[in-house]
Amino acid sequence: MSTQPKARRLTLSDLGKRHQAGEKLVMLTCYDASFAALSEAAGVELLLVGDSLGNVVQGQDSTLPVTLQEMCYHTAAVRRGSERAMIVADMPFGASQISPEETFRNVVPLMAAGAQMVKIEGGREMAETVRFLTHRGVPVCGHIGLTPQSVHQLGGFHVQGKSEADAERLSEDALALEAAGAAMLVLEAMPATLGEAVTKRLHIPTIGIGAGVKTSGQVLVLYDMLDISPGKKPRFVKNFMAGAENVQAAVAAYVREVKSGIFPSVEFSY
Q1: pLDDT tens digits, residue range 91-116?
Q2: Is 188 a residue of the active site?
Q3: Full set of structural domains in the chain with CATH
Q4: Total-model pTM
Q5: Phi, psi (5° rounding) for residue 119?
Q6: Closest to 190 in 3D by CA, of 157, 220, 229
Q7: 161-179 residue pLDDT tens
Q8: Which of 8, 6, 18 minimizes the C-alpha distance to 259?
Q9: In angstroms, how far is CA 227 from the centroid of its own chain?
């Protein structure tokens, strides 16, 4: 009989201590058990079960068709494949753009499937929902800047916060979400100077994706950084498979570059 102690899954407290110590946090999207095991073995701390699976797994042209049932399925698969990484699950379109009470009911199956935190897109308009969830024991990661679920309202996938007014709006959104109890905040597709400014104003960690190197950590879509996704990639995507011996080596290189502050360099920033 093995006496090997069971691995302990990372908690918000663990990540908070790393953040306070100035250590960069590493997040990567994940949709199945095999990549979950590989990613955490390479050092990834946060596995984001992203609704980006609509694009890279299902072949959709946006994240909007992804259902709550599908998110639960993929979350459960990632949970089974991992032992230590914290699991964050996206609330799909329509699951949180409703009343706080209905949002909570939609969160329940995601948490039961294995999520330790849910990610919700939107700024201060989502603060009431974030507050409702956190008061009921649900950790929440906010998401501002380019929010893919709002792609039609935004008029496409464009960099956000370029004007002074828009930058201030995003900063206020970030403060509102933190005040509502969000434990973490994804900043997507904004000038690096804004990513840095927002990070400095907050006490909670920020996870950048196209928001410069001065955020508290980074996230990329797994299929993008492995150069699997077809078509043109966003500017913030680096192909980590280039020169790597295998997939795990590519993910490990991503982890090293995020931890050391090498990635994203200027060429991968706005």
Answers
A1: 999 999 999 999 999 999 999 999 99
A2: yes
A3: 12-268 (3.20.20.60)
A4: 0.95
A5: -105, 130
A6: 157
A7: 999 999 999 999 999 999 9
A8: 18
A9: 19
